[in-house]
Amino acid sequence: MRRVLKSLLLVGAVGALVALSAVPASAGPVSGPNPIKNIGTNRCLQPQGGSAAEFAAVTAEPCNGSPQQQWQYEKIRDNRYHLISSFSHLCLNVFGPTATGTPILLVNCVTVSNEEFNTQKALPDLVTLMSRAGNKDTNFCADIQSPVGATLLLKPCGSVAALSQTFTVGLPVTTFARR
């Protein structure tokens, strides 16, 4: 009986160690909340229709300071970040192949490179949001076109007017206001 009890305790301890090692450590402190504003459209990112649902598209709407337009960023490593909706606590995710027109949606935050964006410099700042896949930079960037309600999509970095791929991240909405 004593031998069985020791075996069960040992199995339980090993199981607990395995479970603890599977829990990802926090990559870094979360900053914000602040809007993510596109310089080309002078509009702020938010879930389509103000939705808090998973798989909601992300659109550009007139900046109004609403909770739906508030974002946080979490540094993963170097200039790679998770961008997290303060409203829904969901992450921006390149949901599909790395190709022109792939939508960027809000999904549950997990540790996958599809939720990482390389800003090429430390935040907060004026940046492009280059997507990552397979733990590598893709040379595809978040892009938003001018109509109100336009959906955030991937396009080759630098292939369109630079302003449609330029965002303020982690800065108050009045910073870098378009003139």
Helix share bin: 10-25%
Q: Span between N and C termini?
A: 80 Å
The total domain count is 1
Overall 3D form = globular
Name the poorly predicted regions: 4-26, 175-179
Number of strands: 14
Strand content: 35-45%
Give, in order, the helices and strands.
HEEEEEEEEEEEEEE
Specify the CATH architecture.
Trefoil
Can you identify the CATH class? Mainly Beta
Number of helices: 1
Quaternary structure classification: single chain
Provide the spatial order of strands within the biggest beta sheet: 1-5-6-9-11-12-13
**Structural class by secondary-structure content:** mainly beta
Q: What characterizes the major β-sheet?
A: 7 strands, antiparallel
What would the average pLDDT be, to the nearest integer?
A: 84
Radius of gyration: 19 Å
Describe what you observe in this structure.
This protein is mainly beta. The chain has one domain (30-169): Trefoil (Acidic Fibroblast Growth Factor, subunit A) (Trefoil), CATH 2.80.10. It is built from one helix and 14 strands. It has one helix spanning 2-22, and strands at 30-34, 36-38, 43-47, 56-62, 71-77, 80-85, 91-94, 104-107, 117-118, 125-127, 130-133, 136-143, 153-156, 167-169. It has a seven-stranded antiparallel beta sheet with strand order 1-5-6-9-11-12-13, with no helix packed on it. A seven-stranded antiparallel beta sheet has the order 7-8-4-3-2-14-10, with no helix packed on it. The termini are far apart. Mean pLDDT is 84; it is low at 4-26 and 175-179.
